[in-house]
Amino acid sequence: MKKRLSPEVFRLPIDEIRQGFYSDAYFLRTAEILNRDQHHPTVLMQVFQRKEAVLCGVDEAIAVLKTCAFDPDKLVIKALYDGDEISPWETVMTIEGDLANFSHLETIYLGSLARQTKIATNVRRAVEAAGTKPVLFFSARYDHYSVQRQDGYAAKIGGISGVSTDANADLWNGIGLGTIPHALIAAYHGDTLRATAAFDKHVDPAIGRVALVDFNNDCVNTALAVARMLGDKLAAVRLDTSSNMVDKSLQPLLGMFPPTGVCRELVQLVRDSLDAEGFQHVKIMVSGGFDPAKIASFEKQRVPVDMYAVGSSFMAGSFDFTADIVKVNHEPCSKVGRVYCPNDRLVTVE
Q1: pTM for this one?
Q2: Between 3.40.50.261, 1.10.3720.10, 3.20.20.70, 3.30.160.20, what CATH number should domain 129-315 receive?
Q3: How far is Cα of residue 160 from the mean position of the Cα atoms in its chain?
Q4: What is the pLDDT of residues 91-145, one digit of tens each?
Q5: Are the C-beta atoms of 283 and 309 separated by less than 8 Å?
Q6: Rg (CA), the chain
Q7: CATH topology of domain 7-118+317-348
Q8: Contact indicator for 160, 142 with CB cutoff of 8 Å
Q9: What is the mean pLDDT of residues 179-190?
């Protein structure tokens, strides 16, 4: 049996949500009208979206309903689970009860579903493209810090192997991972060896030594220099060449392939150079502009990458959810074109 996260883990601002602070105004007015008119039909609200996707945000949506409805015990909620693969128009959740009890929550629970489904789906597609190789979630910098906990959880649902902040890892009791940023190398006047040596000297030995080797646009020679310095302690090198740059090691080879950024030929040169000096144990991490399509292309070409660090592409696209009333007092009633679509995969929420 699949398990759901407890509502308490989401640390929801319950009072503000109940007061409608985060709700579209017309949902608040709906509840006001129904209450003043003493009109309280039982409705069945049906939630869906329009794409092939990996569902996520269900547990937070349930938490919103369970803690922020005015009388949660009078709602009957049925839902799929975070991580379920879903089809276009498939019903992912139903909510049955007095509309005035939960009308103010529609904006909130739809937003949770939309955001987390986007992250989980994008991550799952990248993980599938990478096969058995780890994919890391380096996306925290591309949005507001307040969404990191839920984004990291959605990434974990999608199958991510690691995240970059402790907040990303909070809902699954993990920790943020990280290598050496360009900023640290710049602080040592562009000397990658000094920066890496300082990292090795002062950072807990349990943290893997992963050297960033593109600062001076010379990945092959920098990777070799770091490997010679750290030897067996060096776990990996990370290539992050800008998409508008051609690494120095590729410049003599120009003319036969697109040379910019982290391309196949650059990765192969770094791998061959490390192997030639006996550094077969040093893995190669790549980052910068990777998405499922580029990962799939690298895998098809058998580029010797050991792990992928992905950033902004996990934030791409949209997965918008819609909620419609499809029954009133147990009788069919819905907007034209929206009808009740029962789904025997739904599980009643206790």
Answers
A1: 0.93
A2: 3.20.20.70
A3: 8
A4: 999 999 999 999 999 999 999 999 999 999 999 999 999 999 999 999 999 999 9
A5: no
A6: 25
A7: nicotinate phosphoribosyltransferase (3.20.140)
A8: no
A9: 95
